[in-house]
Design goal:
Layout (H helix, E strand, L loop, with lengths): L4 E7 L3 H13 L6 E8 L5 H9 L8 E6 L5 H11 L4 E5 L3 E3 L3 H9 L5 E9 L5 E2 L9 H8 L8 H8 L10 E2 L7 E5 H7 L11 H11 L3 E12 L3 H27 L2 H24 L5 H19 L2
Parallel strand pairs: 1-2, 1-4, 2-3, 6-10
Antiparallel strand pairs: 4-9, 5-10, 6-7, 6-9, 8-10
Helix pairs in contact: 5-10, 9-11, 10-11
Length: 316
């Protein structure tokens, strides 16, 4: 029977979360033939040992492909390894800190098949407590959006309008629609789209690769669709916190986001975003200083934005 769907799970010290993720796929499998690729980025825990021994034979009615890397090659490159080896027409990127729910995968498959120009679709993400996890954001950012969101100017907009314009925490994620981007934590992609625009950009080790990929899809004429009727639970970056800590994660996310903007936007657009971000951080620093509140994170962001602004303006 021809495999139609490949789950791709990039793992680094996933441990119990990886086990729960795979067992959720076994509990609520899609109705089409599927297989699972686990790409391990040199884990130091028992993830690979579990996969090789008791892990899947008794739990998942599908063939497991394990790719072991001798070093952490990053999220993009690891996903691309599995994309290249898979023979399926659909690829489902799934983080090891996720759990699928009943019917979620088939719902996404049905959505992908609504239109042959839908290149990717993604689910409604939930926090472990069942609350909404905001996963649809504007992409790429613009100066007006950065200023409106960062300075609280969104309060001047009617609630429904700001939801449609700003997305993120202002939008209820309650209807199917074309969106600017989807989180790489849970993303169903069409093979034909990947053959057309290419797989993930390996210049992004971690973070912003989903921004870049979705932007490339849309620029290539493909639709990117959010499907609220498919729900997947997402823990929310425990591995990056384990690797870098809070400030380190913030630095990695911000620097990757700015790198994405420098590579994918016009120089004027990137400079405008950096200037707007610097202004927002400057006002936040003043506000926190006046109230004797911690400003370590704000100072970090301000330093990163100002350095990026100098670099982009000089063209280095």
């Amino acid at each position: 029977m021809t495999t139609q769907l490949s789950f791709i799970i990039v793992n680094w010290n996933g441990g119990e979360l990886l086990r729960q993720c795979i067992e959720s796929v076994a509990r609520f499998p899609p109705s089409v033939p599927f297989d699972i690729f686990v790409v391990d980025n040199a884990s130091s825990d028992d993830s690979v040992k579990w996969l090789k021994s008791e892990g899947l034979a008794a739990h998942v009615p599908a063939k497991l492909h394990l790719i072991e890397n001798s070093e952490n090659v990053g999220f993009s490159r690891a996903n691309n390894q599995a994309i290249a080896e898979s023979k399926s027409d659909m690829l489902f990127l799934l983080n090891p800190d996720t759990q699928v729910t009943e019917g979620a995968i088939d719902t996404l498959i049905n959505t992908l098949h609504l239109d042959e120009r839908i290149g990717a679709c993604g689910p409604r993400l939930l926090n472990p407590d069942g609350s909404l996890q905001h996963s649809v954001w504007r992409n790429p950012p613009t100066p007006w959006e950065i200023l409106t969101a960062g300075l609280g100017l969104w309060r001047l907009l009617p609630k429904r309008l700001r939801g449609e314009l700003l997305l993120g925490g202002h939008w209820d994620h309650a209807r199917r629609r074309d969106v600017p981007m989807l989180f790489g934590a849970a993303l169903l992609a069409r093979r034909e789209m990947i053959d057309d625009v290419g797989s993930l950009d390996e210049r992004f080790h971690m973070y912003a690769e989903d921004n870049e990929w979705c932007l490339r899809m849309r620029r290539g004429g493909w639709r990117v669709v959010f499907e609220p009727d498919a729900e997947i639970v997402h823990q929310g970056s425990p591995f990056s916190l384990q690797r870098w800590g809070t400030l380190g994660k913030l630095r990695a996310q911000t620097e990757s986001s700015l790198d994405f903007q420098r590579r994918c936007l016009s120089r004027i657009h990137a400079i405008g975003n950096l200037a707007a971000g610097s202004l927002v951080m400057f006002f936040h620093k003043i506000w926190r200083t006046s109230r004797s509140r911690p400003r370590e994170e704000i100072q970090l962001l301000l330093d990163i934005y100002l350095a990026g602004l100098r670099q982009t303006r000089s063209g280095t």
